[in-house]
Amino acid sequence: AQSVTQPDIHITVSEGASLELRCNYSYGATPYLFWYVQSPGQGLQLLLKYFSGDTLVQGIKGFEAEFKRSQSSFNLRKPSVHWSDAAEYFCAVAPGRGSTLGRLYFGRGTQLTVWP
Amino acid sequence: DTEVTQTPKHLVMGMTNKKSLKCEQHMGHRAMYWYKQKAKKPPELMFVYSYEKLSINESVPSRFSPECPNSSLLNLHLHALQPEDSALYLCASSQSRADTQYFGPGTRLTVL
User: Fold this and answer.
1) Which pairing describes strands A110-115 and A105-106: parallel, antiparallel, or unpaired?
2) From the first residue on, what is the mean pLDDT of each consecutive set of 10 residues in chain A (116 residues)?
3) A22 close to A73: Cβ distance less than 8 angstroms
4) Among A77, A93, A97, B22, which has the highest number of CB atoms less than 10 A from its own CB?
5) CA nearest A24: which of A3, A9, A51?
6) CA pair distance A82, A89, nearest whole angstrom
7) Inter-chain contact B90–A36, Cβ cutoff 8 Å?
8) Which residues on chain B are in Cβ contact (under 8 Å) with A34?
């Protein structure tokens, strides 16, 4: 069965510090991978996605993520966090090439708090 | 433009009321989705429409009734809801079921 693990429920960083949010998945083939961000009471905004090709992907708001097949991981990084980055972050996985399932599997989310 | 719009933004309803949530996209996407999200939890898939036909129903109670009148619109009709149905309801769309999903801002539903 597909699963997505975000081991950190809550992370606190100081503004200007670097950030890494962890995501591991369990899936038979190489899936499509996503990171979404959600501010309180808002919808989910796509930060970045990986389908194939270069394993380091760039997203919006200065975020990047690296796909590591050997570790089944897709960790999200940002070199310098801004106070406006405080939000809930969801890693999500979808069946990859050739699939028409249309199902996203979400991790439980990581709440990011940024101290001034 | 990757905008999905949802109305209303907030909805309060009694358990005997009938109401509808609306979702609209003009990106030419042919797949549309309803999710339910409780506080501090990830979204849970409810329904998937592909080319205006219901393709996935995640065993959702019949008090939730989806409708896709055309390729740009998705409705969720609500009737005889329970207080535990209070949640954020999110709509999403994608080019096809295998593509990136783009989410709307959600409707915050409170059932009294």
Assistant:
1) unpaired
2) 91 97 88 94 94 94 96 97 97 78 88 96
3) yes
4) A93
5) A3
6) 15
7) no
8) 100
